[in-house]
Design brief:
The protein is mainly beta and 532 residues long. The protein is built from 3 helices and 39 strands. The longest helix is centred in the first third of the chain and has 7 residues.
Length: 532
């Protein structure tokens, strides 16, 4: 917090009791003694013990002896009421408890001010104002209760704006109202009885706000690449890395990807998005500090969308699945995509039924490994396909057991040179959105695959699950209940298509009930659980 002007008046430094934790110079009345001997009353002088309560903010580490405070975090230091201030030399003023600033763990507890100021760990840079020997916390109450608040000003005042670690210890003060050590009426010694309870010393790391600046939504030729500069938070303190989530506002299951991570303080995040739209960006660190959520408009992104279906198959049967161009296949010159599956459930057989409008597309454009099919195609010129057009079919034999499911998805494995690249006739790399499917081995006519999107932070209600429904007779009815909290059953929701997402959920295990057309004499009922 900003240091305030200290007024020298009749030999006393007047220090108004303002906001908590403002660094104030501890004023002296009289002179320091030349030794550390004390009068008998000082034997009982005691700054007391403390506790911590009422944390407000983001940090996930608020336990002593080192507390981490994210920007704008607050925590109350609560005194236990066990102080002894009987060594106060002037009963006409109110003594109290404040907190001394240290740069390392303090070791000198007293018995007088002269001894305390000899502690080499006292924070004296910048130097306290004239007439003071060290910094103490302004604000709080004489009983020793005070709120520590990280508003960034301590970093500015003591460390040039960089994050810093400070040590504090409760210390007795003779006149709390002006934070002054009074003179012994007999000897003129300033602070004849002072106690700093070094056994109660604690450290606080003050972190700066996480910021994202230099935001650019046109970092690539296709409009699907953006960037922003990251600063602050725990990475500025210890070189750790940020956690970055980039999600489409209208469908949080569609997410952007940072292509140059992991990233620490002062580095620029470069990301790709798979489809046009406005994206929400959430940046946090390992301490729980979060940047203010911001949005990046990637509506200029030019992208292509392919889709894999969901299906059920009898054990041992073969199934051939359509790989479909959903939209965006315009002036496309080359394609490389990778389709992954679980080889414990599905065994790849072949590709077939190639789209004749993709010149040269055939078996030679595919390379099948145990769990991935790589498609690589280069056309003689830019090609166009209608939305919804079949690209090719991929065939599997079901080798798993009843109840087994295999995800079927477009993905990458850069370590093995399996990347996704789609370019147009100008050799511009375009965005790509691959819609995943699921293949399950089942003897029943109704099946659903449940996927989840966890809550972003503890206690929030922004989780979701998505059900992909196969078979049975639509419309479907879906209800769900959080078994962890015992909340009431929600729904039923009526679903006419094959996909349903339940949003705004708290964390927990959800029981999901899916029923196909209830108008049937004997509707099919499916029960399952999903962890959000």
């Amino acid at each position: 917090m900003r240091p305030r002007l200290l007024l020298l008046f009749f030999g006393l430094i007047l220090l108004p009791n303002l906001q908590a934790q403002v660094p104030k110079g501890a004023a002296l009345e009289g002179k320091l003694s030349e030794g550390t001997a004390s009068r008998q009353a000082c034997a009982d002088q005691f700054a007391g013990t403390i506790g911590f309560a009422n944390f407000q903010g983001q940090s996930n580490d608020t336990q002593p002896d080192t507390l981490f405070l994210c920007f704008d975090d607050r925590i109350d230091i609560v005194h236990n009421g066990d102080a002894d201030l009987s060594g106060d030399p002037d009963p006409s003023s109110q003594p109290g408890i404040t907190y001394a600033f240290y740069q390392c763990p303090p070791s000198v507890s007293g018995p007088n001010l002269n001894a305390v100021v000899g502690d080499a760990c006292l924070l004296t840079n910048p130097p306290p104002p004239a007439g003071s020997d060290f910094w103490v916390a302004g604000g709080g109450t004489p009983a020793g209760d005070i709120t520590f608040h990280n508003d960034g000003s301590l970093q500015t005042f003591f460390n040039g704006g960089a994050p810093l670690l400070l040590w504090f210890a409760p210390i007795t003060i003779d006149d709390f109202s002006v934070l002054q050590y009074e003179a012994d009426p007999n000897t003129g010694e300033a602070g004849p009885c002072v106690n700093a309870n070094t056994a109660e010393a604690f450290a606080v790391v003050y972190l700066n706000e996480i910021t994202a600046t230099n935001r650019n939504v046109n970092a690539g030729l296709s409009g699907c690449r953006g960037s922003f500069l990251l600063q602050g938070g725990l990475p500025e303190w210890d070189g750790s890395v940020y956690d970055i989530r980039i999600e489409l506002v209208t469908d949080t299951t569609i997410q952007g990807e940072v292509v140059n991570g992991p990233l620490t303080h002062g580095q620029t995040a470069v990301f790709d998005v798979p489809t046009p739209g406005v994206y929400r960006v959430i940046v946090s660190d390992a301490m729980g500090c979060r940047a203010a959520t911001f949005f990046m408009d990637m509506s200029a992104c030019v992208s292509v969308t392919f889709e894999l279906p969901s299906a059920t198959v009898q054990p041992g049967d073969q199934i051939c699945l359509d790989v479909t161009n959903v939209e965006g296949f315009l002036d496309i010159q080359s394609v490389q995509v990778n389709i992954f599956w679980d080889d414990a459930v599905l065994q790849f057989d072949q590709v077939q039924n190639f789209n004749p409008n993709l010149q040269g597309l055939g078996p030679g454009n595919f390379n099948a490994l145990d769990t991935v099919l790589v498609m690589t195609w280069n056309g003689p010129s830019g090609e166009n396909l209608p939305d919804g057009d079949l690209l090719f079919q991929i065939c599997f034999t079901a080798v798993g057991q009843v109840g087994d499911c295999s995800p079927l998805f477009f993905g990458e494995d850069p370590a093995n040179f399996l990347v996704t690249e789609i370019s147009n006739s100008n050799n511009d790399l375009l965005g790509f959105l691959g819609l995943a499917g699921t293949v399950c081995i089942s003897n029943t006519t109704l099946f659903a695959s449940l996927s989840q999107d966890s809550v972003r932070c503890h206690g929030e209600a922004n989780g979701s699950f998505t059900a992909q429904i196969v078979g049975g007779q639509p419309p479907y009815e879906i209800s769900w209940q959080n078994l962890t909290t015992g909340a009431p059953v929600q729904g039923p929701a009526t679903v006419g298509g094959s996909t349903f997402t339940a949003g705004n959920l708290t964390a927990g295990t959800y029981a999901v009930t899916i029923t196909d057309d209830p108008a049937q004499p004997m509707p099919n009922v499916l029960l399952d659980t999903v962890e959000v």
